[in-house]
Task: structure prediction
Amino acid sequence: MRILGIETSCDECAVAVVEDGRRILSNVVMTQIPLHERYQGVVPEIASRAHIEWIMGAVKRALSDAGLDAGSIDGVAATARPGLIGSLAVGLSFAKALAWSRNLPFKGVNHMLAHLYAPQLVEPIEYPFLGLLVSGGHTIICRADDFDKITVLGTTIDDAAGEAFDKVAKSYGFGYPGGLVIDQLAEKGDERAFRFPLPSLHKGEHRYDVSYSGLKTAVIHHLPSYLQPGAAASPENIAASFRKTAIETLLSRLYRAVRDTGIRTVVAGGGVAANAYLRRELAKKDELRVYFPPLPLCGDNGAMVAGIAWHYFARGETDGWDIAPSSRVMDFKRRQE
Ligand code: KG4
Ligand code: ZN
Result:
């Protein structure tokens, strides 16, 4: 079964064709980075307008890269939530119209579940596992019992992990997009140059939650001295020290979940899963089976949407034409104390 998957939740206009949930026949990602760069962040109005202009071209290219025409597609899927409403509406409406015109099954998928599925485009992973979902909008540590069944153990109580990278990069004028720029600078820096506070480990209900506001404030506190001529603080050292603390925060919660649940398989997903420090540190853990998406599948893409949709279709699950986009992540089951 060949599924065409559309992803327009934020600033990537992405379309892919995936066969049977795994074989990627094409994967087109048209990035809007140059459109948002001068604002140092995604401007929703600009994003949705660009999606409207690009979506037809992206779909045509995904079909032609796969050597197919619209008549050879067996199902259509699109991200329905969470994301920017205007951006989501473009991909979702386009996907519905395509499916309706061809009399094909249609499914709206959850962006975060699709991120968690991305490593399974490479190989199947046995459930249950622990998920580390880290993107620009969300930070979720969860237990996954199936591709669509997760229990949220922890989340962020303020900024998302990627958002913290983006905000620090923006304050220091490091460049855009922030996560990648900080990661690249950090590779050349000394992570012990600055000692930033690790957010304190919460107890009870918040055992697996993270917080980035204190760290962000502490890092930005160094800005005046960084700006002085001849200052000792280099971009590389600030980036490396911040990156280490930001990622160690996530790892401390994840390892706590491993200890408490006894689950030793860990799956990472989302834009921050591309982080070099995170990938290196988790790879050192011999006692864990760790799965990351390949780098091109960490960020937003249509392949993860088409891939996960196949599993819904295989169960006979489709959505009606009335499914609407939502900015909310979903009512995932939250861990009971
Ligand atoms: O999943 P994604 O592409 O879009 C959302 O769903 O939000 O994630 C984007 C986020 C941005 O905040 C970006 O700065 C961050 O992922 N990011 C990174 C890296 N590459 C992208 N953060 C840390 N290290 C990276 N290498
Ligand atoms: Zn994403």
Notes: The two ends are 41 Å apart (CA to CA).
